[in-house]
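TASK: fixed-backbone design
INPUT:
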């Protein structure tokens, strides 16, 4: 496990919009798991086999290009289902749905699909289907909300006053793809209903959400930031 660090740096959501055209995509990632990612050993052990078989990612791209196509201001979501715990490194999804934004043109959708595949080599080996839907932008205040068409939604919150941690609990997993910085949020309510893979997944009350920044700096890779930087008085990172 990487050493926990506290970074007093200012990386507001708005500052990420100042991106030079031609850079690789950057922005923020919300990643929901069906198992707790921050918990005690007993809880993690109990969920290691039967839990964690579903994930939902929402990529909110603030700038950059892929295959020569500008992606700034677009969002793409990925729902994965597996017989394995997808929080474990190298776990492979059996089925995946990629939700492409209806606000994008055909060229942008093609570039987005290629980009998410490049982020996850295991995804390229999965059975992939696509929807074109409206994807609402994740909020950037104390509470995160987003909606992926009629198929998925999430409401997550900062770990208010850090009271959701007790002695003996710790971080067990990391985001499934490389990020610059990440922290953990509390899933207050999530709902997934996906007919293409016959999946209904409703959850709440778990520390099962990663909130991350990607593409910001090559120097920091999957660097865990304690929730004090989010739930404390400064809220400098997220």
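OUTPUT:
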């Amino acid at each position: 496990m990487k050493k926990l660090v506290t970074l007093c740096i200012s990386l507001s959501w708005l500052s990420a919009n100042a991106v030079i055209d031609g850079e690789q995509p950057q922005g923020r990632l919300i990643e929901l798991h069906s198992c707790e990612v921050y918990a005690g050993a007993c809880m993690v052990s109990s969920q290691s086999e039967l839990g964690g078989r579903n994930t939902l990612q929402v990529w909110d791209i603030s700038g950059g290009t892929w295959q020569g196509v500008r992606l700034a201001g677009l969002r793409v979501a990925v729902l994965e289902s597996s017989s394995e715990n997808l929080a474990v490194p190298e776990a492979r999804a059996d089925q995946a749905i990629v939700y492409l934004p209806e606000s994008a043109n055909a060229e942008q959708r093609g570039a987005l699909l290629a980009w998410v595949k490049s982020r996850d080599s295991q995804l390229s080996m999965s059975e992939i289907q696509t929807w074109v839907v409206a994807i609402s932008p994740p909020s950037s205040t104390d509470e995160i909300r987003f909606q992926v068409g009629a198929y998925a939604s999430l409401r997550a919150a900062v770990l208010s006053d850090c009271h959701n941690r007790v002695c003996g609990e710790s971080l067990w997993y990391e985001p499934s793809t490389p990020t610059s910085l990440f922290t953990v949020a509390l899933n207050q309510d999530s709902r997934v209903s996906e007919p293409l893979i016959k999946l209904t997944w409703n959850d709440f009350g778990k520390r099962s959400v990663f909130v991350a920044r990607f593409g910001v700096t090559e120097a920091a890779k999957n660097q865990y930031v304690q929730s004090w930087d989010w739930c404390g008085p400064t809220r400098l990172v997220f």
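COMMENT: Residues 157 and 238 are 12 Å apart (CA to CA).
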